[in-house]
Every structure is written in C-alpha cells, then in structure tokens.
Specification:
The structure holds two protein chains of two kinds. By secondary structure, chain A is α+β, with helices and mostly antiparallel strands. Chain A is about 20% helix and about 35% strand. In chain B, a hairpin with a 2-residue loop joins strand 7 and strand 8. The chains are: A alpha+beta, B alpha+beta.
C-alpha cells in the first residue's frame, strides 16, 4: 500500500520508507526537483516556486528556503545527506518550469518558469552535480511523483498517463 | 511587508466586499446581456489568503480547469485570475454559445475565446466598480485563456505575486441560470500602490 506525501508550494521531503510516494501536483512554472540514492534507498523531492530571494522583500527566515530554487536545492541536498544518502550517488531529476502564460506582451516579463530552470541548472553546476533527466519548459502543467521503493520518478501532464523519466 | 498585511484589515476587507458585490452584480447584468438570458449571481465571499496556502484552499491541484488571466494598469496596477473547473467551463461554453447543455465536449479556439470574453467582462465590471469608488482609472489587458491543471494555473498567481506580495485576495462567487450554477473563483493580486489608494480613500471616507 502506497503512502502518498503531498508537497505544497515551497515544501520539501526526504524519505527512506519504502511505501512512500512523494508528490507535487500540478506544477506550472514551479520546479519539482528530485534526488535519489538508489543504493541506500533515500529519496527526496523539492517543490520550488521562485528562482531566488529578492533582497528586502521577503523576511530572512530559513524555513522559507524551499520556496526558492537555489536555497531549496542546497537545503534538499543536506536533508538527503542527513538521511543517509551518499552525495556521489545522488541522481537528480527536474520537472516543471513551464511558461503558462501565452499571450502577447505577457510572456517575457513573467516567464518565471524559464528563470527557475536556469537557476536550477546553475545551482547544480555550482554544486558540481549532474542533472540525470529533465522534463521542463513548454506550456503545460505537470505532476511529479517519486516512488521511494523503486527509486522511480514519473511525470503526468493533462489528459495523459504518467510516464517514467 | 508588514504594511501589506496590516493594510488588509477588517475594515478594508468590508469595504472591498461592498465594492466587489456591486462589481459582480454589474458583471451579471453584462453577462446576461451577452447571452440574452437572465443570469443571477450570489453575493461574493471575500477572503484574504496567504500566498503559499492557495493550493490548500482550492484543492484538487491535478484537476483540469480553465483559467482566464488579465492584468490591469493605469492609476493602479494588478492582476486578476479567474478559475473555473473544466466541467463547469464546458457548461459555461454551452451557455455562452447558446447550445443545449452537454453539447460542448472540448474547449477549442472558439470556446476558449468565449470564456476569455466572459472573464474579461467580469473583471472589467469588477475593476469599474473599484475605479468609480476611488476615482481612479485603469485599463485591463486582453485576456489570456489557458486549460490546464489547477496547480499549474495557480502557479501564475503565486509566481507573479511571490516576489512582492505575501497575500492575495480571493473572490468566490456563483453564477446561476435557473438550476444551473457555476462556481467561480477570482484571484486578485493588487500591488502596494493600489492598496495605498484604497486605504487613503478609506481614511478619507
């Protein structure tokens, strides 16, 4: 019996429980970033909203780190290591970052999705970690699921079945 | 940021409720005129929602829905997002296109355009009421219509407001045509300047 753990905006989770499935529903411009250590069976998922903190506009509070791509990735990584993952074995997958607004004059200013993706790639490069698989960009929402037992990550878009990435 | 939260006090919410009530009623009249049948509207319920809790309020994040988004500018800047569950979107399309209930099975270009027009109409009447109350003027952008998962549509609200606002305004109302009832949620993302204007007006009154 699967135990579904739903991640809301700006939340993250790390699990070693075989029955757990970590889910982020309906990602638009948000990013779902998963990390899996297939040997030690540790899996984590981050539901990041924005690329980075904007100076002065948001309170300096570590509890909101998962809301941001850069801080969230670092926070998820340390949670993974604390959970028993081996850094060198972590497989990273990235889902989301769509540009949901397709209308004249609206897209360029509000393309948070693309900025999220760029920030994530940059952050992983800085951390010297590779992204094993991506299902990002475009104009559709996605649901991402992380099956802890199998170390499997799936994506589902509107009107379609979920598939592995 | 404390200013934003403080700005949304009970008084302001009450004031907004009155303005919104009028705006939505006007929108119903406009809507009725558009489809040539009398559409009634329930009194809107207003809520101030912390940004990150939006999905919890809506629920069913993976469900299909229709979103109509527009921005407004002028004396005030802001954004409005109208969200309708997909099934209700089909029913609304039936209503708007003047065809029998259950005729519309998918939302093509024409149906989306009709729904966009509805969102445009509702938002414009809502904006006009605010404009009249505070003596400001603003212009809405053309509507952008999207069909996708609820969560993905809400991401637009969250992402565009996330860097600036901690709270957004939710207007929940029902459009009724006899026994048929369509629930509609509007998310209004005002900017600081807009709130200042409303506040100023409030203290003046």
């Amino acid at each position: 019996m699967n135990n579904t753990i739903t991640l809301g905006l700006g939340e993250q989770a790390v699990s070693r429980a075989q029955e757990d499935v970590l889910v982020a529903y309906g990602l638009g411009s948000c990013l779902g970033i998963s990390m899996i250590d297939p040997v030690n069976h540790v899996a984590g998922l981050l539901h990041a909203v924005l690329p980075e903190k904007v100076n002065g506009l948001i309170h300096e509070d570590a509890s909101t780190d998962s809301k941001f791509v850069d801080l969230g990735i670092e926070s998820l990584l340390s949670a993974m290591l604390n959970g028993g993952a081996n850094r060198g074995r972590i497989i990273v997958r990235m889902v989301g970052g769509a540009n949901m607004l397709i209308a004249p004059g609206l897209t360029s200013t509000f393309d948070i999705g693309t900025r999220n993706i760029e920030k994530a790639r940059f952050t992983f490069q800085r951390l010297n970690m590779k992204i094993a698989a991506e299902d990002v960009g475009g104009h559709t929402g996605r649901t991402v699921r992380v099956y802890v037992a199998e170390g499997r990550v799936t994506v589902r878009v509107i009107g379609q079945k979920e598939h592995d990435i | 940021m404390t200013q934003t939260i403080a700005a949304f006090d009970e008084d302001l919410l009450k004031k907004l409720t009155i303005i919104t009530n009028e705006g939505i009623k006007n929108a119903a009249v406009g809507f009725s005129g558009m489809i040539g049948r009398k559409i009634e509207v329930s009194s809107p319920r207003l809520e101030l929602i912390p940004l990150l809790t939006i999905p919890k309020v809506i629920g069913g994040l993976e469900d299909d829905a229709v979103g109509v988004y527009l921005r407004f500018e002028g004396d005030m800047f802001g954004q409005i997002m109208m969200i309708i569950p997909y099934q209700k979107g089909l029913e609304l399309a039936d209503l708007l296109m003047g065809v029998a209930e259950g005729t519309t099975q998918t939302l093509g270009q024409l149906e989306r355009s009709a729904l966009g027009e509805l969102g445009n109409l509702c938002s414009s009447f809502f904006l006009n009421s605010i404009a009249k109350t505070i003596g400001a003027s603003f212009r809405p952008s053309p509507p952008a219509v999207m069909v996708d998962m609820v969560g993905a549509i809400l991401d637009i609200v969250v992402a565009t407001a996330g860097g600036v606002n901690e709270h957004v305004l939710l207007v929940h109302t029902n459009f009724m045509d006899g026994p048929r009832c369509v629930e509609t949620d509007f998310w209004v993302i005002p900017d600081m300047k807009a709130l200042d204007l409303l506040l100023k007006k409030k203290t003046d009154a």
